[in-house]
Amino acid sequence: MKTKLYFFLWICLSALLIACVDDNIEPDVVPVTGVSLNKTALALEIKGSESLIATVTPDNATNKKVTWKSSDTSVATVNANGEVTALATGTVVVVVITEDGAMTASCKVTVEPAALLKGTRTILAYIAADNTLASFASLDLAEMKAGMAKVQDSNVHFLVYIDDGKSPRLLELKNEKGAVVETVVETYGSRNSVGVSETQEVFAKVFSNSKYQADSYGLVYWSHGDGWLPYPLRAGTRWVGQDKGNGDNRMNISEFVEILKSAPHFDFILFDACFMQAVEVAYELRDYTDYCIGSPTEIPGPGASYDVVVPAMFSAEDAAVNVAKAYYEPYAAKYNEGKGLSNSNWTAGASVCALRTDKLVDLARITKQVLPGAVDNARLRSLIFDYDKRRGSDGLQDGHVGYYDMANMMKEITDNGGYLTWRQAFDAAVVYWATTSMNYSAYIGMFSMEGTNGVSCYIPSVSNTVTDKAYRSTEWYTFAGFAALGW
Fold first, then answer.
1. From start to end of 285-400, where are the E strands?
2. How far apart are the C-alpha atoms of 403 and 227, rounded to whole Å?
3. CA-CA-CA-CA torsion for 431, 432, 433, 436, nearest 10 degrees?
4. pLDDT tens digits, 76-124
5. What is the spatial distance between Cα 296 and Cα 293, in angstroms, rounded to a whole number?
6. For residues 104 and 97, what is the distance between their CA atoms, to the nearest angstrom?
7. How far apart (Å, rounded) are the C-alpha atoms in residues 270 and 302?
8. Beta strand 34-37 with 216-222: parallel, antiparallel or unpaired?
9. Positive or negative, the Cα torsion across 165, 167, 170, 176?
10. Angle between the 319-334 and 306-313 helix axes, to the nearest 10 degrees?
11. Given CB 3.0 to 4.6 Å as the disulfide criterion, which of 148, 297, 311, 374 pairs with 387?
């Protein structure tokens, strides 16, 4: 009897143990055995894009996650969905890698030149670097040469004025059968490169020279920048351009406009300088260029990747949009939330906007129509995203101006109907806007760009500062009707 009882208990215990084991059995894991792509070779023109499709085998593999890599992100990038975007002529290999088993497949991507220009084009890059940016000037000049090597058009002229505090000079870079030849057009003695007469002299050497006259023109202005704000109001501010070779000289937008009056009409002006995509700046320049390209906040330390940007400047169609993309996309490809950040490894992202200036008059008109009767300035300044992160360690303002997101502001101060009307006009003016999820400020480090729209504007304080008074001198303030708010 005791033996039968022991046997019965053993059977029950065994069943219990089996049940416990069964409860912890994981479903079978099906490992990845391979991956393939729908194409092993792909040809794209510059600015073209196409998606590659990865097929992981077997079909019932448990983990089908993959990552994508490009062997040269200056030629072509690939995003997390396998979309390949061509940036510059050359050949790259795009590889897909499975998370499970690290299986790979590759596609050879050949990027061909975009369609040749139908007419001639002359572009001047004006590098005012006799300041703290001097070390970047020679690096960007080298990138410009690398970019010019990719320009196949024979009917183009690319000139570079460079003042890095050593020997100011005007150069022409020309692609002669794949080799870039640098020719010295003019040399200059020590000078203030942001002076009106000095800049006009360089512009005349280029744009009044029959050798460089063209069907279309572009301008790159490279230096420090501080949006619309005139200098001097207080220490620490820059408008556009700084020269410290003899004192501290800076160029105001009013002076820049004076220079542009004697220059040809530009297809685009690219500001490779901080804070320049402000509506106040673009509105002042609306009669002198079709597009303004720049950032509403601080730009990356190294500035534009000219090995990619230069070919985009000479693209046959949509040059302004192509330039904006060529500025942004190399930084987007390297973006890693600022980890391991350095000027030679810029992982902190970027933000770039291109504005169509002929739409700004309509934007000003509609802005004036939808403005409310009154606004609480102090509250508004506290609510709206501010691209200007300049603050001292003690929390006090350190050169801070306040470059507020214009669309955020208009949404806050108008009703829904008014904002929708205004937003249509805004979207017609903004032909390109892209930003990484975070950007970098030299003052606070990484900061979120969530909810931004690419164009800044000023919101006056309640204390009627010299900055507030200067703001009232801008044409945007007048034509957009902000006097009605008591601003």
1. 289-294, 351-356
2. 8
3. 170
4. 999 999 999 988 888 999 999 999 999 999 999 998 876 667 789 999 9
5. 10
6. 5
7. 15
8. unpaired
9. negative
10. 160
11. 297
